[in-house]
Amino acid sequence: MVAGKGGVGKSATSALLARAFAAMGFNVLALDLDSNPGLAISLGVPPDDNPVPPDVIEEAPDAAYGWALSSAYGAGDVVDRCGVDVSPRIRFLSFGNITQARNNLRRFVPASWQVLRDFQRDGWVTVVDLEAGPTTPFEGIARTASIVLILVEATPASILAARRIASILEHEETDFVAVVSKGVRDSDVDRVAEDLGPPFAVIPWDANIRRAEKEGSLVDLHEEAPAMQSVKDLACLIERRVLLRETVG
Amino acid sequence: MKVAITGKGGTGKTTVAAILARSLARAGERVVAIDADPTPNLGIALGLGSEATAQLEAIANRLLAEKAAHQRSHDHDHDEAGGNLCDPPPGQAVRDLVAEVGVDAPDGVRLIQTGKVERPADGCMCCGSHGTTRKIFGEIDSDGSIVIADLEAGVNDLIWVYPKPEDVVLIVTEPYRKSIEVARRALRIVGDLSVGRVVIVANRVESPGDTALVRSEFPGVHVVEVPEDPLLTEADRRGSSPMDVAPQSPGVQAVARLTELFESEHSSR
Questions:
Q1: Cβ of A164 under 8 Å from any chain B Cβ?
Q2: Is this complex's ipTM strictly greater than 0.85?
């Protein structure tokens, strides 16, 4: 799961991570839990405001917001039926974006959490792009994560947000690491380390990304781009860390 | 007059809110600034400093605790008619809250923090955060003052806050796809709500291409451009207010000119 203050690069990083894991041989479910269409755009998928048909959910008085995943659907069914293939190994799934004042998106939220929690397939990695800020992890879904990446820039506001998210995750007993995003100078790492300890990884500021975001998506970002290289290294580090924790138990 | 500032995360809402608030205050207006972000940072942009900002009291917790006490003593159900789990109860007047819990920021801007929720046990976090902002923004007395709300990133908070036709909404966007998509949705929402005065603030404009992109996406809407400004970015990094470290820089000047819109509105009332 990728968390952090708004604008830090969650969607972009999630998209690049999806590419990195795919390159490592995994199948990837790129799951967008943000009600804004960031991940779709980063992956080059036209934002579809209603990708999930209404029959995927049913009324459930005991569930949060009164709606839950329909009993006719398993998590895998939703991924297979409602997801979109971005590439041979990357499947994108979103439950919808808010587009109007009468917002019924909330009904789909518990179903999205159920899919997140229940979707387990051998050889698959789920990369989750979270909504900006500390709210989503608060809602208990952080426990489904093998690891949460808290992206942070070297600004006081971003660091404050990262600290808030970190304390929530500590409370949820979820493994998390801090990753410096849009790193420009060495002092950025020092600045972040002052508050959060030595970061797990650093993704450098990359003009290629800014250009790619303006012109299209990150799907075609060059393999040799600095940010892409760092994200690939990050993916390896994540794999190793998660495996180690699972082995140790 | 009440102003809500919305837009995708990271587009510059907080910076615009802070520069606008202090500029209006310097022009003689009484300004109340509302920080609706669950992690408060408007105080930093206003020039209060990170530590003071981090220590701002979370009104939401006070309201949620009152609500819990209210429900216990009145034995209410969650879906009582006229009530909503996510609405703080009638209670302390908003004016009193602003006086008690608000802090004074530079240039006399009164700052109040509505988005932060400390303890989830007192209520679901999103309801506490959004519900508090809605209550304060909706009920605050804006006679003779200008209320500027720096909303949480994305359009969810905008919907919660439910701006009225007489309110003003600034939609901050940067000249690239993701940001523009959120701005489009925000525009549609304020249209649904019949908000009378909407301005698109095109932030970090670097080229004529950027200008053309934003204007072509929002034909017929008032667009104000703010140029990319390294001094603003530097102020962000340092945790200072751009008004203090770079008051003459192009970015600050462009945002400060937004005060012209409000002065003519305000004086015609």
A1: yes
A2: yes
